[in-house]
Amino acid sequence: MRGVNFKGVNLHGVNFQGAKFEGVKLGETNLEGANLQDADLRNADLRDANLEGANLQDADLRNADLRDANLEGANLQDADFHDAVLRDANLEGANLQGVNLSGRSLKDANLEGTNVCGAKLDSANLEGANLEGANLQDADLRNADLRDANLEGANLQDADFHDAILCDANLEGANLQGADFHGADLREANLEGTNLAGFKYQGGSLEKVRS
User: Fold this and answer.
1) Distance spanning both ends of the chain, measured CA to CA
2) Record's Gene3D superfamilies (predicted)?
3) Cβ neighbours of residue 52 under 8 Å, at least 6 residues apart?
4) What pTM did the predictor assign?
5) Which of 57, 119, 148, 198 lies 20 to 30 Å (CA to CA) from residue 15?
6) Long-range contacts of 98-106 (CB under 8 A, 24+ apart)
C-alpha cells in the first residue's frame, strides 16, 4: 500500500493487524479503536489522525509524522518511534510502557495520565508537555528538555533525570522517591509537596526552586 492516500477516510474499528502501510497518507483519518498491532507504518503521514483507543502494540512507526494526532487511550506498548514526530500530539491515558522515544520531539504534547513506565525518553524534547499524573517510574529522561513541563502528581520513582533541564517545570505533589537528578537544572521549578525520599541530586542548579 506504499504511497496510498487514505486522508480523511473513516476506518473506525478496522482490523489492520500486521498491515503494510509504509509511506501511506493517513492524515485526518479516523482510526478510532482500530487494530494496528504489528503494523508497518514507517514514513506514514498521520497528522491530525484520530487513533483514540487504537491498538498499536509493536507497530513500526519509524519516521512517521504524528503531529497533532489524537492517541488518547491508545496502546503503544513496545511500538518503535525512531525518528517519529509527535509534536502537539494528544497521548492522554495512552500506554507507552517500555517505548523508545529517545531524542523525539514531544513539545507541547498532552501525556496526562499516560503510562510511560520504563520508557526511554533520553534527550527527548518535552518542553511545555503536560505529564500531569503520568507514571514515569524507572523512565530514562537523561538530558531531556522539560522546560515549563507540567509533572504535577506524576510518579517519577527511580526515574533518571541526569543532566535534564527542568527550568520552570511544575512538579507539585510528584513522587520523586529514588529519582536521580544529578546535574539537572531545576531553576525556578515547583517542588511543593513532593516526595523527596531517596532523592539524588548533585552538581545541578536549584536556584529559586519553590518547595
Assistant:
1) 54
2) E3 ubiquitin-protein ligase SopA
3) 32, 33, 70, 71, 72, 73, 74
4) 0.85
5) 119
6) 102/140
Question: What does the angle CA 5 – CA 35 – CA 2 come to, to the nearest 5 degrees?
Answer: 30
Whether the Cβ atoms of residue 55 and residue 76 lie closer than 8 Å to each other: no
Who contacts 45 (Cβ-Cβ below 8 Å, separation ≥6)?
Answer: 7, 24, 25, 26, 27, 64, 65
User: 77, 95 in Cβ contact below 8 A?
Assistant: yes
Per-residue pLDDT of the chain (211 residues; tens, 9 = 90+): 676 889 999 999 999 999 999 999 999 999 999 999 999 999 999 999 999 999 999 999 999 999 999 999 999 999 999 999 999 999 999 999 989 999 999 999 999 999 999 999 999 999 999 999 999 999 999 999 999 999 999 999 999 999 999 999 999 999 999 999 999 999 999 999 998 777 777 665 555 555 5
Amino acid at 37: Q
- Rounded to whole angstroms, the Cα distance separating 72 from 195 reads 28
Give the HSE-up count for residue 117: Cα atoms under 13 Å, Cβ half-sphere: 8
Look up cell 514526530; give the residue.
Answer: 85
